[in-house]
Specification:
The complex is a heterodimer. By secondary structure, chain A is mainly α. Chain A has a single domain, classed as Cytochrome c oxidase-like, subunit I domain (Cytochrome C Oxidase, Chain A), CATH 1.20.210. Chain A is built from 18 helices and no strands. In chain A, helix 4 packs antiparallel against helix 6, helix 4 packs across helix 10 and helix 11 packs antiparallel against helix 13. Chain A is globular, with a radius of gyration of 23 Å. Chain A starts with a helix and ends in a 38-residue tail after the last helix. The longest helix of chain B has about 40 residues. Classes of the chains: A mainly alpha, B mainly alpha.
Chain lengths: ~525, ~290
């Protein structure tokens, strides 16, 4: 045993001796914390890029008529906004946390496949370039701008679209490879790198959430890759997958896309469901309630999520038995989700609660994500959906699940772990300001959109009828407040990274549990070179 | 348990992931330019391909070196095994998309197309039969006319190809037995036969494609049938090509004395991959050629 330890320390010093500095450190790193930092930084940058795009959209929608941009450019902005936010902001943020925290939480020396891990990250900037480059190329007369089909890339529109669609196809391919690599790494790390004594049912829920996310990615991302490959061959190599004249069917694309697209929602949410219970537990100073019930609910939701996809296109003309099946299966997801909500609330029940910024975000998140879930039930009803399909109601619904349920959850994680990652405390005052600004502006932006949708305003249009003017104006003003409030987040993160503010203790939160809090803040470059033993 | 303070191999910083990603950026954006008739596209693709090739040699070379110098022990080995299983699962999902497309057009899309009310459809007189190249009509502003074509039959070349791949599954297992018994001759001979069978499969497939294009009137553009046939068998053939290249590397490594009876993940990973390709072919043979 002692020999093994000596080689470990020897290798360690050898490693540090040759570690490159400056830019090369980041280009070549195999360290999970470096890679996690890159993922999180990339996610923050792309969050601001995607946000800026949608502010352009909201500015156009400020009043009826066409003011600022042509409809074609409007269409490009909404599609790229969605792709950027989903693939380049939310997913990398969750993967960044996985990279940073899983080895610390599981007591592992690093991620299982460090070089592959770095490749997973470095595929993202090229994918982002492919997605956004057509905007710039159009200025030089090459092509007609970015993908203008919406993020769903529906055929036949995407078959007929310009060069932007081709760029989007390959961007999706690179993003897909990146997700598959990340998932492989996380699955292997969870199965093979846990500290002795850390059984699967002793893992933090974050690891469970990510494990199921990774399984979903492995099962569905390749299907999306297949779908966009068919799109590519339909566009350039004469196949007829999505063209009725050749015996193909445009609805086939919708099936393939949403077979990926619906699990994608849970891919974005499961990691958040993983760490929110730990935040609730820390600030309620109580253990997580119903740990096993939550794990089993994760499994149930993961399995159900791959068999409900067609509820995204109830109005496309499916046979009635198919409509009924997809309606009931979709609604049944609310059962395990209700178990989760119960557990989150029960974790706080009679706890000695305090409301630091992470807890504010976590509790606000429960309410707002709850609204997202309940409005989803409305849309899952076939008869009601006939009215709400493709309206602003849908837009409001999925922003409650993905902005509130996804991004605000991620923000709870950011404030929870920022002291651990940087070693410095953020300003509690600014953190709280950020929460209240975000929560209020978010609701002001999207509650009017529920009303707009109920009144019949369709989504993805640059101009609208006069009766929708007031609600759109409120929504646009609030969207700008929401966008500007995010600068507080940027300021908080930058000041922590630059070491303004108080030094963080090993465990800055009184009630936080888990191996990551046993390490110094920030943890050393190589943590757990010797694995801890979990009792 | 020996795992208590075991050391896990964390590699030194490596330039390969970044170079590979840059290469892929060049390759994909170059391909987009080429498809849309912008001149520099081909050169970008060429440059990108060089990057990818450089990384393939460099990165795999490095991994082989690390393996042979004894850096990987049981713990690392287990990581590689789980990773390979997960990777192959993702490949299964990729093929599932194309099998799903085949199922959909055959059983849902084409029957629906044929049963529309004649007063509402431009595709009058279209009947739901399989194989089908569709009713014909306007596609991307050009008239698509359904040409006469001859569908693939399972007997003949496809049946021979099935035999070839099944036999290659046996030879690679026989080689594995040789490796475990430390019988190097059996290992090398088994691998050599597997590579030869892989190449024969590819040659037969190439001949079949040539025959389809020149004599059967069956091309990638032959409606839903041509699209599903060529994309499914084409992606499978591409995987056979990759598998054959991987087997060749393993063969060369075996000749150079690599692998030990109790330490040969690379061999097993490639063998698993080869069996996966084999199973996909069986599905193809039944669902694409036969039924």
């Amino acid at each position: 045993m002692s020999t093994a330890t000596t080689t470990a320390t020897h290798d360690h010093s050898h490693h540090d001796h040759h570690a490159p500095s400056g830019v090369m450190r980041w280009l070549t790193t195999t360290n999970h914390k470096d890679i996690g930092t890159m993922y999180l930084t990339f996610a923050l940058v792309m969050f601001l890029v995607g946000g800026t795009m949608i502010l352009g959209v909201r500015a156009e929608l400020f009043k009826p008529g066409l003011q600022l941009m042509k409809p074609e450019f409007f269409n490009q902005l909404i599609g790229v906004h969605a792709l950027v936010m989903i693939f380049a902001a939310l997913m990398p943020a969750a993967t960044g946390f996985a990279n940073w925290m899983l080895p610390l939480q599981l007591g592992a020396p690093d991620m299982a496949l460090p070089r592959l891990n770095n490749w997973g990250f470095w595929l993202l900037p090229p994918a982002a370039i492919l997605l956004t480059a057509p905007f710039t190329l159009a200025l030089f007369g090459i092509g007609d701008g970015a993908v203008a089909t919406g993020w769903t890339l529906y055929a036949p529109l995407s078959v007929q679209g310009g060069i932007g669609v081709d760029f989007a196809i390959f961007s999706v391919h690179l993003l897909g490879i990146s997700s598959v690599l990340g998932s492989i790494n996380i699955i292997v790390t969870i199965f093979n790198m846990r500290a002795p004594g850390m059984t699967l049912f002793k893992m933090p829920l974050f690891a469970w959430g990510w494990l199921i996310t990774a399984f979903l990615l492995i099962a569905t991302i390749p299907v999306l890759a297949g779908a966009v490959t068919m799109l590519l061959t339909d566009r350039h190599f004469g196949t007829h997958f999505f063209d009725a004249a050749g015996g193909g069917d445009p609805i086939l694309f919708q099936h393939l896309f949403w077979f990926f697209g619906h699990p994608e929602v849970y891919i974005l949410l499961l990691p958040v469901w993983g760490f929110i219970p730990h935040i609730l537990s820390a600030f309620s100073r109580k253990p997580v309630y119903g740990y096993k019930a939550q794990v089993y609910s994760f499994w149930a939701i993961g399995i159900l999520s791959v068999v409900v996809w067609a509820h995204h296109f109830f109005t496309v003309g499916m046979p009635v038995p198919a409509l009924l099946y997809f309606m009931y299966s979709t609604m049944s997801i609310s059962l395990p989700l209700a178990v989760l909500f119960f557990c989150w609330i029960a974790t706080m029940w009679k706890g000695s609660m305090s409301f630091e910024t992470p807890m504010l975000f976590a509790t606000g998140w429960i309410i707002l994500f709850g609204i997202g879930g309940l409005t989803g039930l409305v849309l899952a009803d076939v008869a009601a959906d006939a009215q709400y399909h493709h309206s602003y109601f849908v837009v409001a619904h999925f922003h409650y699940t993905l902005f509130a349920g996804g991004i605000m959850g991620i923000m709870a994680g950011v404030y929870f772990w920022l002291p651990k990652m940087t070693g410095y405390m953020y300003s509690e005052k600014l953190g709280k300001l950020h929460f209240w600004m975000t929560a209020i502006a978010f609701n002001m932006t999207f509650i009017p959109q529920f009303f707009l949708g109920l009144a019949g305003m369709p989504r993805r249009i640059p101009d609208y009828a006069l009766q929708f003017a007031e609600f759109n104006m409120i929504s646009s003003i609030a969207a700008f407040i929401l966008g500007l409030s995010q600068l507080i987040l940027v300021y908080n993160i930058v000041s922590c990274v630059r070491g303004k503010g108080e030094k963080a203790k090993d465990n800055p939160w009184e009630g936080a549990q888990g191996l990551e809090w046993t390490l110094p803040s920030p943890p050393p470059y190589h943590s757990f070179t010797e694995q801890p033993v979990v009792k | 348990m020996a795992t208590e303070t075991q050391h896990y191999y964390v590699p030194n910083p490596s330039p390969y992931p970044f170079i590979l990603s840059s290469g892929l950026l060049l390759l994909t954006s170059g391909f987009v330019f080429k498809m849309n008739n912008f001149a520099p596209g081909v050169w970008m693709m060429f440059l990108g391909f060089l990057c990818v090739l450089y990384v393939l040699f460099g990165w795999f070379g490095k991994v082989i070196g690390e393996s042979e110098s004894g850096q990987y022990r049981e713990w690392e080995d287990k990581s590689f095994r789980i990773a390979m299983i997960v990777f192959i699962s993702s490949e299964v999902a990729f093929f599932a998309a194309f099998f799903g497309a085949l199922f959909f057009v055959r059983n849902i899309g084409i029957p629906e197309l044929a049963h529309f009310d004649p007063s509402l459809t431009p595709y009058k007189g279209f009947t739901a039969i399989w194989p089908s190249a569709g009713p014909g009509g306007m596609v991307l502003g050009k008239l698509y006319e359904v040409a006469k074509f001859e569908p693939m039959k399972p007997l003949g070349l496809p049946a021979i190809n099935t035999m070839i791949l099944l036999t290659s599954g046996l030879t690679v297992t026989w080689a594995h037995w040789g490796l475990v018994k430390d019988n190097r001759r059996q290992l090398i001979l088994g691998l050599f036969m597997t590579v030869v069978l892989g190449i024969s499969f590819l040659l037969c497939q190439a001949y079949e494609y040539h025959h389809a294009y020149t004599e059967m009137g069956l091309t990638l553009g032959t409606g839903a049938y041509g699209a599903t046939f060529f994309m499914l068998t084409g992606f499978h053939g591409f995987h056979v090509l990759l598998g054959t290249i991987m087997l060749t590397v393993i063969l060369l490594r075996s000749i150079n004395g690599h692998f030990k009876p109790n330490h040969h993940f690379a061999f097993e990973g490639v063998a698993w991959y080869w069996h996966f390709v084999d199973v996909v072919w069986l599905l193809l043979f039944v669902l694409v050629y036969w039924l």
